[in-house]
C-alpha cells in the first residue's frame, strides 16, 4: 500500500502500515470531518481483518462495536446464511450502528464477501465522536435514515411477495409437491447464489413418457393417479436442499446444487430407475400400464441465464425422448 503524507506525527504513528488518510476520507461517517480534530479518538480505534466467508455479526447477539469498511465487501443476510443477501456493503459503509445505538441484540448476519479490512470503533468512542463533531453526528443521522428507508423497502417487498404467494399458492393441489411459480422462484434464487459462490448446479427436466396417449386411452382419473404417483416417487428421491416442482402438465423440474456432472448423471439414472422399478398402480382394481420417464440434464455454465439453463435442459429432454425414452440425456 502506498502511504500518503500526514500533517500530524501522532496520526502517522497510528496508521503507519495500516491505513492512509485517503482510506479514512472514503468513510461516510467522517465526511466533512477534520480528521486532525478527532485524532485522539482515532488512536483508540483498532483494525480488524476478515477472511472471505468469516462471520462478523450474527442475529440475537450483543454488539458494542461499530465497524467501518476500509476495503472489501460484507454481505448482510436476514434469515440465514443460505438466504439471499439483503444487501452488500462496500468501502466507506458501516456495520453494527443500530445495535450500538439502541443497545439491543443484533438482527442479521454480517459476513465477509471477500477479504475485508475494518476500522473498529467501540460505543464509547462513537458517542465521544458524536459529542465532539457536529459533522459526524449529521453523518450518523444520514446513515441511520438510509438504514430505516432500506428496512421499509424490504418490508414493502416482503408484503408484496406474501400477496403474490397467496394469489398463486405454492403447492400443486394434485401432486402435493410445489408448483411452477414456486420452483421458478427457487431456481432463480439458487442460480444467483451459485453464481456468487461459484457452486455447480444442475437442472433436471422430467417428462412422463407417452402421457398424452395414456390420458386419452385411460381417462383423466387414471392420468391423475399416474401424475400423483410419479411426483411422490420423485419427492422420495430428492433431499430437502434440492427443490422439486411440477412444471406443467406431466413435466417436473428438480434443481440440484453442489454436484458435479458425474454425480448429476448418476442422479438422472437413479430417477429413471426409481420410476421403472416402482410398484404397479391400480385404479378400481385395474392395473395400469407402468409409467416411465425421460430426463434432460443441464449443468449451469458461467454467465448462463436461468432461461438459457432451462432451455438447455429442455433440449436435453428431447434428446432423451428421441433416443428411445426411459432414460436421461444431456
Give structural attributes.
Jelly Rolls; 2 domains; disordered N terminus; alpha+beta; Alpha-Beta Plaits; 330 residues; 5-stranded mixed beta sheet
Describe the structure.
This protein folds into 2 domains: about 10-155, Sandwich (Jelly Rolls); about 180-330, Alpha-Beta Plaits, CATH 3.30.70.270. It has 11 helices and 15 strands. The chain has helices at about 10-15, 20-25, 40-45, 95-100, 125-130, 135-170, 180-195, 210-220, 220-235, 260-275, 305-320; strands at about 45-50, 55, 65-70, 75, 85-90, 95, 110, 115-120, 200-210, 245-250, 250-255, 280-285, 285, 295-300, 330. The strands form 4 sheets. A 5-stranded mixed beta sheet has the order 10-11-9-14-15. Strands 1-8-3-6 form a 4-stranded antiparallel beta sheet. Strand 14 (about 295-300), helix 11 (about 305-320) and strand 15 form a beta-alpha-beta unit. The longest helix has about 35 residues, at about 135-170. The radius of gyration is 28 Å and the shape is elongated.
Number of domains: 2
Briefly note the structural class of the backbone.
Answer: alpha+beta
Strand content: 15-25%
What strand line-up does the widest sheet have?
10-11-9-14-15
CATH class of the largest domain: Alpha Beta
What distance separates the N and C termini? 49 Å
Percent helix: 40-55%
Mean pLDDT: 86
Query: Which spans of ≥5 residues are poorly predicted at pLDDT below 50?
Result: 1-17
SSE order, one letter for each helix or strand: HHHEEEEEEHEEHHHEHHEEHEEEHE
Q: What gyration radius follows from the Cα positions, in whole Å?
A: 28 Å
Amino acid at each position: 500500500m502506498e502511504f500518503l503524507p500526514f500533517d500530524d506525527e501522532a496520526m502517522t504513528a497510528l496508521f503507519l502500515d495500516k491505513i492512509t488518510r485517503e482510506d479514512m476520507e472514503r468513510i461516510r461517517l467522517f465526511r466533512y470531518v477534520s480528521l486532525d480534530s478527532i485524532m485522539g479518538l482515532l488512536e483508540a480505534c483498532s483494525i480488524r481483518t476478515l477472511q472471505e466467508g468469516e462471520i462478523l455479526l450474527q442475529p440475537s447477539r450483543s454488539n458494542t462495536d461499530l465497524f467501518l469498511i476500509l476495503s472489501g465487501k460484507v454481505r448482510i443476510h436476514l434469515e440465514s446464511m443460505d438466504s439471499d443477501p439483503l444487501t452488500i456493503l462496500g468501502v466507506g459503509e458501516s456495520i453494527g450502528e443500530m445495535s450500538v445505538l439502541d443497545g439491543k441484540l443484533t438482527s442479521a448476519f454480517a459476513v465477509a464477501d471477500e477479504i475485508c479490512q475494518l476500522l473498529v470503533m467501540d460505543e464509547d468512542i462513537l458517542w465521544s465522536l458524536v459529542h465532539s463533531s457536529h459533522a459526524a453526528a449529521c453523518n450518523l443521522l444520514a446513515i441511520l435514515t438510509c438504514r430505516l428507508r432500506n428496512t421499509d423497502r424490504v418490508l414493502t417487498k416482503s408484503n408484496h411477495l406474501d400477496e403474490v404467494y397467496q394469489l398463486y399458492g405454492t403447492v400443486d393441489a394434485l401432486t402435493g409437491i410445489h408448483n411452477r411459480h414456486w420452483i421458478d422462484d427457487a431456481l432463480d434464487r439458487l442460480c444467483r447464489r451459485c453464481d456468487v459462490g461459484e457452486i455447480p448446479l444442475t437442472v433436471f427436466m422430467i417428462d412422463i413418457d407417452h402421457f398424452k396417449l395414456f390420458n386419452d386411452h385411460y381417462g383423466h382419473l387414471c392420468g391423475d393417479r399416474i401424475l400423483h404417483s410419479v411426483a411422490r416417487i420423485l419427492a422420495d428421491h430428492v433431499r430437502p436442499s434440492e427443490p422439486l416442482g411440477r412444471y406443467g402438465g406431466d413435466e417436473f423440474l428438480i434443481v440440484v446444487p453442489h454436484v458435479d456432472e458425474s454425480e448429476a448423471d448418476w442422479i438422472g439414472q437413479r430417477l429413471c430407475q426409481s420410476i421403472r422399478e416402482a410398484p404397479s398402480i391400480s385404479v378400481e382394481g385395474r392395473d395400469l400400464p407402468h409409467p416411465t420417464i425421460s430426463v434432460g440434464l443441464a449443468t449451469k455454465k458461467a454467465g448462463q441465464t436461468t432461461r438459457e439453463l432451462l432451455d438447455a435442459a429442455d433440449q436435453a429432454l428431447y434428446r432423451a425422448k428421441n433416443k428411445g425414452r426411459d432414460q436421461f440425456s444431456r
